[in-house]
Amino acid sequence: MSSFAAKFIFCFGLLLNLSFFPGGSEQPVAQQDNSQFRVNVVLVQLNVAVTDRKGNYITGLRPENFEVIEDKIPETIASFEEGSKAPSNTASALDTQSESAGTENPNPSEQNNSADTPMQTPLPRLAGASVYILFDTSDYMYRGFVFAQDAITGFVRSMGSADKMAFYSYSRDLARITPLTADREAVLRGVRSTVAGDKAALYNCLLLTVKDAAKLRGRKAIVVFSNGPDDASSVPPEDVEELAQSTGTIIYIISTRAAESDPLSTAVFERMSKATGGKAYFAKDWRDEKMAFGAIQDDLAHLYTIAYYPKPNRNQGWRSISVKLVGKDLAKYHVRTRDGYRVLQQEAAAHEPVSGDGAGLDPK
């Protein structure tokens, strides 16, 4: 880890928050001498997409269909949510059949048409998400600026059921044009106000955006629109990736051919999005851009949200996470989520409880 990331995690570990569902609660932190570190168990939240071999989303799964393993230690699911369905603790989810199981969808156009789907359920609506849009307004954007604005506008309008959205832009510096809000018109005004210019410091600005998202509770995602490689950042992309993983922030990246023509940028975009549970898209024209935004909206709407309290683990560094499907004929499906998190450390200068989206244990 770079010194920048280490300082960032040290300073902001106290600010990280997590989505606490019914049935889960923060664990109290024992008071200790200020010169020591402390241990604080927090809830780890995973956003999980399940698809068949054709890329169709699999809906109607239940908590007992998922096995979560952290550092080879089987974990117990504390909370489970699918799409827009209300969160529930594991006991009630296991004892209650899905409302849509064994019923016929009255609207065939909303059904998942895959023959592999274990249950046919209506398309879930996006709910409980905080979505940050990070728009490239560097000098790379002169040619396709208007088309990109149109694609972002369509995405904002399609997210009518999302709780909150924010619109940021970046070139050499980050501009927080529209803070997180439920007002779609405010977000659209922010999109229309942007102009292109200056160089691109994507990783610097993305790190700041992850920092903003890390303070939030609940499902959170950053959607990046980039038209070219980073040519002005002092922050390496590995720092951004690691912080996003450790705070449970999903990163989606939509990039044009200008960035795809740079092999390094392509590799970084794909690795960063995959490591955080998101996806990278490379659009050749405005039609592809709109399709990519639509795919992201669809992905967010179909995520399972799984949370657990980590069992005792002596590992104070990087902890790997794997999620597997359990049940008849489920092994053939593909599971996508973040692959782990790093334990966040801070000095015990205060005694109030601390929480974090996958921050795990704050070591002594």
Which structural traits does this protein have?
single chain; 364 residues; alpha/beta; Rossmann fold; 5-stranded antiparallel beta sheet; 9 helices; globular; disordered N terminus; disordered C terminus
Describe this structure in a few short sentences.
This protein is α/β, with parallel strands linked by helices. The chain contains nine helices and 15 strands. Strand 9, helix 6 (237-246) and strand 10 (250-256) form a beta-alpha-beta unit.
Characterization of this structure:
Strand 9 (219-226), helix 6 and strand 10 (250-256) form a beta-alpha-beta unit. The protein has helices at residues 3-12, 90-95, 145-158, 184-192, 202-214, 237-246, 257-260, 263-275, 286-301; strands at 44-51, 66-70, 73-74, 77-82, 88-89, 129-136, 164-170, 174-181, 219-226, 250-256, 280-283, 304-308, 318-325, 334-336, 340-342. It has 9 helices and 15 strands. The model is unreliable at 3-41, 88-127, 346-356 and 359-364 (pLDDT under 50). A 6-stranded mixed sheet has the order 8-7-6-9-10-11, sandwiched between helices. The protein has a 5-stranded antiparallel sheet with strand order 5-4-12-1-14. It is α/β, with parallel strands linked by helices. It has 2 domains: 1-55 and 65-93 and 303-364, no CATH class; 129-301, von Willebrand factor, type A domain (Rossmann fold). The longest helix has 16 residues, at 286-301. The protein starts with a helix and ends in a 22-residue tail after the last strand.
